[in-house]
Structures are given as C-alpha cells and as structure tokens.
Design goal:
- This protein is mostly helical.
- 66% of the residues lie in helices and 1% in strands.
- The termini are far apart.
- The relative contact order is 0.08.
C-alpha cells in the first residue's frame, strides 16, 4: 500500500509544484476557483498519505521523530481557518503556507523521481527543472519584491532560470525590483546552479554519512566521473572546500575594497558576498542597477572580480590538478609522473590566449569610441575586464549597447567558446575548441591523428566535439531566426542575446527587458539548454534507448 501511495503522491506532487507556480500568475477568476479546489484535493491526498504512514508504522513515535517534516502538510489548513482576511499577519501566514507547501511537495516528488529509475542525465534535467520551478514560486511571492507586489509568473520564471543556469540575463532589475529576501533566493539558486544540483545532493548525502547502494554508487560514478566512492568523497570535499574558501576570500577582498562606500559595514558585507558568489559561479547577477560600471576605474574591484571569474571558469578538476602538481613540486617530489595532465594544460593555454585576444581586440576597436573615456588606466582595465567577463561571467564595466559592432562580434565569439568543462561556466568549452582546432590544423599537415601536447586525441572525442559544435550552431541559428521573426531589433543585438543566453553569459546590449513573452520563453529554453549542454540533453532525450548499432558499408563524400 505504501509503495502505491509513493507513486500516486509522488506523481501528484510533481504536478502540484507546477500548479503552485501557475497559482501565482494573474488568472481569470473561474480558473482560480478550479485551481483552489484542485489544491484542496491535493492537500487532502497529502494528509491521507501522512496519516496512513503513521497508522501503518510499527513504531509510530520513532516514525514521527524521523519524519516530523511531513507534518508540514497540516500547515496549509491554517489558510482555511483564517478565511479571506487581508490583514498584515494573514499575508505573512499565507506566504509561509505557500513556502511550506512548496517544500512539502518537492520532498514528496523526490520519491517519485527516484522510483522511475532515471539515468543520471535525466535525473539532472529533472533536478534543474524542479529547482527552477521552486525558485520561480518563491520569486512570485510579494515578500520577494520591494513593492510587496507579486512578480508576474513569466518574469519570475525567467529570473529563476537565469539564476539557476548561472546566466545573468534579467527582465527585472535585481537591485530595485527584488527585496533582500528575493535577492537571497536568487543567490541560493546561483550557488546551487554553479555547483551543480546533483553535486550538492551527493555532498549532503556524504556529509550525513549515508550508505549508498549499488545503483547510487553507479549514479555517483556517472555524475563525478569517478570509479571509486572514496575518490568521489575526496572530489566532492575538494569542490566544496574550494568553492566556499574562494568565495569567502573574494568577499573579504571586496569588503576591504568597498569599505566606506555603502551605508554601514553590514550592507558592504552583503554586497561583497553577493558579488563574490555571483562572480565565482560566473552568474553575472549584481545588486547594482548598472552592474559594475560604477567601478570601471577601481583596480581592486576589477582584479578581484576577474580572479573569481577565472577560477570559477577553469573547472574544479583543472584547479585540483594544478594544486596537486604545485604541492608535489614544492614537496620535493621530482617524479616524471608529477606534472599537469593534458586537459589542464589545454584549459590554461586556451584561456590565456582567449583573454589576451579579447583584450587586444577590445582595445583596438574601442580606443577613442564613445563607450570609453580618455583615461588610459580605465581603458586598460575595461579591455581586460570585458575580455574576462565575456567568457560566461556576465558582469560589465562599460555600456555594452554603445560598443562597436566589430567589438560585439568578437564578444560573441568569446561567449560562444565559453569557459572550461567541469566549471561553473557554460559555452562550447575551451577543450572542445582546442580539439576542433587540432582537427582542423591536422588537415593541413602530414599527421594522421589529432595530437595535443604529444598525446593522441581519440576519434570518439573528436566526434563528440563536432556533435557539440553542430548542436550549438543549430540551436543558435534557429533561435536567432525565431527572435528576428518576433522582435524588431537589429541582427547583431539578437545574435548577441541568443549567444549570451546559450553560453550562460548574461551580457546584453539592452534588449532583454523589452523582449515579448514569446521571446522570453525562447531565451529561457536557451539558458536551460546552455547550462545542461547538448550532450546531456541528447543522451537524456534521444540516446537513452539505443541498444545496438548497425554498421553499413563505407563510401567517401567530397568535402570542401
């Protein structure tokens, strides 16, 4: 009976999360009445489920101690007892009830998702979707806005998707529209999205010393690309220690740089922590309406934010290998095996090359333009900062809408390539670009294989790189065509917006807030696609049922 209840309640809970999201929208009165009655039915079902488990449990007191949180299902009935009052206390209670309902439904939906036996890629898509919906519901609450007014559902969904997918595109000004509660919700979504929701879940399970079964061990192996649970523990621990240490150090540095510029130390610390987390996670959200344009000439702010962006964009495994190599060398270990692996070397080389290329291009095209001033120091900082932030971070110290078309196109290229694999950033990835570059240059040499740093790149890796490239090109091209058909903006602005969304960058020429509802939906899908990546979506949606392959006879086709 309990297994049947798990599936029924779990399925209803998944639908109920989306129902709760729909309830926050401005709907006709007759639809509101229908949704209210459905909601009451769902609450009764949840209540029956909780009571049945208590009654059927052989040790009821122990069951209540272990599952006390399930009693949250009784809280929504406070709304029925309170009636339709509109005083301040009732509004607060109603908001608490909505949050309680959301948490309860999310917990119950987890059992259903787990019972489906989803593959890691499908589980990742589900977790991101539920997190976005949860965040969207919280952002629609009046307490999340400065005017204590509900935020429209589509705007809240757009903001939640942008935060969870660490993009940074906004349709509502984070600084002026959202209250501190709303900003903290956005910050939590950024942290979850930057670390990876599945990684965060594994960390909580490991921290709670949970014992893993065989299926869970295989899931962790696929998520972390680790063969042993002990390695997974070490990797997860490193990821969280590295993340929180860097974010804390960044916040301390920004606090020192911004000391005396805000009303009180508390507000300075809040802005510093928010921007440190947003920068390391490559999110680009800011508590300032003009992003970081007010600090365009501040050396400390520019350097600290750039360091946070670069560290977040290198990837956890790359940083781990670099730290391990340096530690071994400093410890006197001179073994030939102690050296950087090929991937970290590729990541460092390509990252440095792209930063220098972007900075030089920005300086060349924008020198003497109206976007920059005449001060040399500010121009140098602006060129370097924009080159770094374009690689999926989303902050800006100059007005992007006033840049030259040539500069915007260079930024589009950098946004398209993006950060490195296993990082908080998105895009095509530096390693993918390096493999494709190696495959192209091989055709102009006498080599039969793609070689990078005296290592041969496997054919299946090259095939994956080509697949990712074609996926991105098709997605960007189709979305640009759709946006051009809907919006009146120039091609360069629309292309910039689409690549910024799919690369999870967050930069914009200023058209985001003016997009129509249909265009916003397209951008939401682009951000979701860009964060999960084409291979994740492809394996989850298209390739999960592939059982065998048929090999046909080969035939050459003319290329070029």
């Amino acid at each position: 009976m309990l297994k049947v209840l798990d599936r029924i309640v779990g399925l209803v809970a998944v639908a109920a999360v989306f129902l709760l999201l729909a309830e926050q929208a401005e709907l006709p009165s007759y639809i509101v009445i229908v949704l209210t009655r459905i909601n009451l039915g769902i609450l009764i079902l949840f209540l029956i489920d909780v009571l049945a488990r208590i009654i059927l449990s052989p040790a009821r007191v122990r069951h209540l101690k272990r599952n006390w949180f399930d009693l949250i299902v009784f809280i929504p009935f406070l709304q029925l007892i309170a009636g339709s009052q509109e005083n301040t206390s009732f509004i607060v209670i109603r908001q608490i009830v909505i949050v309680a309902m959301l948490i309860s439904r999310t917990r119950k939906s987890q059992k259903f998702i787990k019972s489906l036996g989803l593959k890691p890629t499908q589980l990742m898509i589900s977790s991101f979707s539920l997190t976005i919906c949860l965040g969207a519901v919280l952002l629609t609450l009046p307490v999340s806005s400065t005017g204590n007014e509900p935020t429209p559902m589509l705007d809240a969904l757009f903001t939640a998707t942008s935060a969870t997918c660490v993009t940074g595109l906004i349709v509502r000004d984070t600084a002026t529209h959202f209250s501190m509660f709303g900003q903290l919700v956005i910050l939590c979504l950024i942290q979850l999205g930057g670390l990876g929701i599945m990684t965060f879940s594994v960390f909580l399970a490991l921290a709670g010393r949970k014992r893993f079964g065989m299926s869970e061990r295989l899931l962790i192996k696929d998520i972390l690309d680790s063969d042993m649970l002990s390695d997974a523990r070490k990797l997860i621990t490193f990821i969280f220690v590295m993340t929180f240490s860097i974010e804390l150090l960044g916040a301390v540095g920004l606090f020192a740089a911004w000391s005396g510029k805000f009303a009180g130390a508390g507000m300075t610390a809040y802005h510093a922590l928010f921007h440190s987390i947003s920068a390391f996670c490559n999110a680009g959200f800011s508590t300032f309406s003009d992003s970081l344009m007010g600090f365009s000439g501040d050396l400390a702010t520019n350097v600290l934010i750039c360091i946070l962006i670069i560290l977040g964009g290198l990837g956890f495994l790359t940083v781990r290998n670099i730290i391990g190599t340096i530690a071994a060398r400093l410890g006197g270990d001179r073994r030939t095996s102690v050296h950087l692996r090929v991937q970290p070397r590729i990541v460092l080389t390509v990252s440095i090359a792209l930063i220098l290329f972007g900075a030089l291009a920005f300086a060349a095209f924008e020198t003497g333009s109206e976007a920059l001033g005449c001060e040399l120091k500010t121009n140098v900082l602006a060129a370097f900062f924009q080159s770094v932030t374009t690689r999926t971070a989303g902050f800006n110290t100059v007005d992007i809408g006033r840049l030259m078309p040539s500069t915007l196109f260079v930024m589009i290229i950098l946004m398209f390539i993006g950060a490195s694999p296993g990082s908080t950033g998105g895009g095509l990835k530096t390693t993918t670009f390096a493999v494709l570059w190696g495959a192209m240059t091989r055709e102009f040499s006498d080599k039969r294989q793609v070689e990078i740093y005296r290592r041969t790149i496997p054919a299946d890796t090259i095939q994956k790189a080509l697949t990712v490239l074609l996926f991105y090109l098709v997605v960007v091209a189709s979305s640009v065509v759709a946006l051009l058909a809907i919006e009146p903006f120039p091609l360069i602005d629309v292309l910039f917006e689409a690549v910024s969304a799919v690369g999870t960058v967050g930069l914009s020429t200023g058209i985001t807030a003016s997009l129509s509802p249909y265009s916003r939906v397209i951008v939401i899908l682009l951000m979701f696609f860009g964060r999960l990546g084409p291979l994740t979506l492809g394996y989850a949606l298209l390739l999960s049922n592939r059982k065998h392959e048929v090999h046909y006879a080969e035939e050459r086709v003319m290329i070029g």
